[in-house]
Amino acid sequence: MRDIAGASELTAIVLTGLRKRFAAGGTVALDDVSLEVRAGEIFGIVGRSGAGKSTLIRTVNLLERPDAGSISVLGQDMLALDDAGLRAARRGIGMVFQHFNLHSRRTVAQNVAFPLEVAGLSSAERRARVDEILPLVGLEGKRDAYPAQLSGGQKQRVGIARALASRPGILLCDEATSALDPETTQEILALIRGLRSRLDLTVLLITHEMGVVKAICDRVAVMEAGRIIEQGRVFDVFTRPEQATTRHFVSEVVGHSVPEATLARLPEPGPGEVRQLAQVIFAGPNSTRAVVSEASRDFGIDINIVSGRIDEIAGEPFGVMALAAYGPEEKVRASLAWMRRLGLTVQELPA
Ligand SMILES: Nc1ncnc2c1ncn2[C@@H]1O[C@H](COP(=O)(O)OP(=O)(O)OP(=O)(O)O)[C@@H](O)[C@H]1O
């Protein structure tokens, strides 16, 4: 597991040893999950359907109570709170949902004001708060519209405004963009990122899309079968994924497939030789080494560069290259092992 040191008094959410099973003998939804989210960061939890993401994020505001473990949010022990304390704590934790969960018979302004009404704010206070928040989500012209008159992206803007109405320090996003098209997804992610800075928010989000993580998160945890199997800075997880599941998620975004037509044009291996395709991710201190020429010289093999491009995460560049190595099998293997020792991520692809 990667280094998660550096977590300090600036930690906004601390989950420790969380366990949850929905029924005796049933699936373990959370299996000893511990996680720290630092103040001001956007932390993503990614995993396949059923991995336990929803259960986990819902423990933060106790929509789901764990069977064991502890939950601290902004220094408060959530499991020690009485009902009134929990209601107050929840006002400090906004939540955005995949399907927006808007009241269809309430206007935009009324939807946004709803949690304030529940919290007992006067109508003048509610109006002031709605006036303050709608421009932040770009909906100042829509206050009297009904949800049915809005696009998906606009509906989610209402959902975000409602989540922020009680001026929370924490924003939980439960697959907030999964019901949106790719362009609208990018707009909503940019909005969340902007609000994080403007309002000093800490954001915890769950998603099954690594693209969301790449676009917006500072750190990420990968969940599988109720456990966190890997976590770290997004750049590190993308460029040096440690677990097979993580590599799979990363490859969805970084992309490693070699087009059939390109494959068909590659030379066949000579007698006694193999052809091994591999994706190599270059990042870190060895990323500028002449790896391909060094490998072919030192191992006496031939390397064809099939494709290559430079990508970036939060302004940090990394290279992704597909190559075809030709030579005696043990030399090809040794060259790929050498690249791994240099700290490059090498994934063998089917030829
Ligand atoms: N209310 C519930 N009652 C019984 N089992 C549940 C309940 N909620 C979740 N589970 C089970 O717990 C496990 C984790 O589910 P969870 O919804 O947290 O996963 P997820 O990663 O969020 O997946 P998805 O994206 O499909 O929601 C699954 O096996 C699920 O069937």
Automatic annotation (TrEMBL):
Keywords: Amino-acid transport, ATP-binding, Cell membrane, Membrane, Nucleotide-binding, Translocase, Transport. The keyword Kinase does not apply. SMART domains: AAA, NIL. Residues 13-250 form the ABC transporter domain. CDD domains: ABC_MetN_methionine_transporter. It comes from the Bacteria. The keyword rRNA processing does not apply. One of its GO terms (molecular function) is ATP binding. PANTHER family: AMINO ACID IMPORT ATP-BINDING PROTEIN (PTHR43166), METHIONINE IMPORT ATP-BINDING PROTEIN METN (PTHR43166:SF30). This is ATP-binding cassette domain-containing protein. It comes from Roseococcus pinisoli.
